[in-house]
Amino acid sequence: MQKMPLKYYLFFTLPTLIAFVIAFLIPFLAGIYLSFTEFTAVTDARWVGLTNYGRAFTEDQTFLNALVFTVKFAVVSVVLINVLAFFLAVLLTQKVKATNVFRTIFFMPNLIGGIILGYIWQLIINGVLINFGVDITYDASYGFWGLIVLMNWQMVGYMMIIYIAGIQSISPELVEAAKIDGANSWQVLRNITVPMVMPAVTICTFLTVANSFKLFDQNLALTAGAPDRQSAMLALDIFTTFYNRNGYEGVGQAKAVVFFIIVAAIVLIQLRLTRTREVEN
């Protein structure tokens, strides 16, 4: 294969690289620097070292509460979304009438914006809870399960499409050979389907983990952190700290850096674990 000349390579990649540096890399590095300063604007930043990180964990208990809340939410969401999406994919790859219609219906919620979804589900959930004299902001557990339902409703269809692509890529001859050898449907699912769709599992797990941790719009619209910041997730807590509390801009930036490290570490561990399963299979 003939190698692309360097000038053409630069011509096609340089605009994207410049945009990446300006829009992501420079702000990212500036954000790390500002997390070690006290500031109200970039021009008046004053170096304070690790003070902001200490304040984030000691002065501001909302950060730890948001961290615990987010981790619990991510664990439940990732498991439920992937299990439901996988079994929907299995059902909709069988010889069932109108499978394309069902696939479209399940995928459609993913097309709705997060803010709109949050308000829609706030109306639905409050319409139920009002019969008991409360609303979704009455207790943090209501907000937690409300977010779980919302997240599942939005993402199950999207993950289902990825699992369907993985299942359809399995060789029919492989399944037929297993059935000829006497394997029943459960054995085919466990010993052939699941191992063969591990690349799809890697993708879906990555997407659900990342989206669960960085959830913001839906949290803002559904509960806005009520009651008393107990249902605020990490992204919303960082936003509130940075923009709604005078003198806490540096603390908010420190929280953002810690948030990035946590999510990056979890995602890298997840990718390594699931890719190892791909290699074994």
Question: What features would you describe in this structure?
Answer:
The chain is mainly alpha-helical and 281 residues long. The protein has a domain at 69-231: MetI-like (MetI-like fold, Orthogonal Bundle), CATH 1.10.3720.10. 74% of the residues lie in helices and 1% in strands. It contains 12 helices and 2 strands; from the N terminus they run αββααααααααααα. The protein has helices at 6-34, 51-58, 61-91, 99-107, 114-129, 140-168, 172-180, 185-196, 198-213, 217-222, 234-244, 249-280, and strands at 37-38, 46-47. A two-stranded antiparallel sheet has the order 1-2. Strand 1 and strand 2 (46-47) form a beta hairpin. The longest helix is centred in the C-terminal third of the chain and has 32 residues, at 249-280. The two termini are 31 Å apart.
- The fold-level CATH name of the domain at 69-231 is MetI-like fold
CATH class of the domain at 69-231: Mainly Alpha
Number of helices: 12
Give a count of the beta strands, DSSP E runs of length 2 or more.
2
Please describe the biggest sheet, giving its number of strands, its sense, and whether it closes into a barrel: 2 strands, antiparallel
- The helix-and-strand class reads mainly alpha
Shape: globular
- Element pattern in H and E: HEEHHHHHHHHHHH
How far is the first residue's CA from the last residue's CA?
31 Å
Name the strands of the widest sheet in spatial order: 1-2
In CATH terms, the superfamily of the domain at 69-231 is MetI-like
The poorly predicted ranges are none
Content of β-strand: under 5%
The pLDDT mean sits at: 90
Radius of gyration: 23 Å
Per CATH, the architecture of the domain at 69-231 is Orthogonal Bundle
Share in helix: over 70%
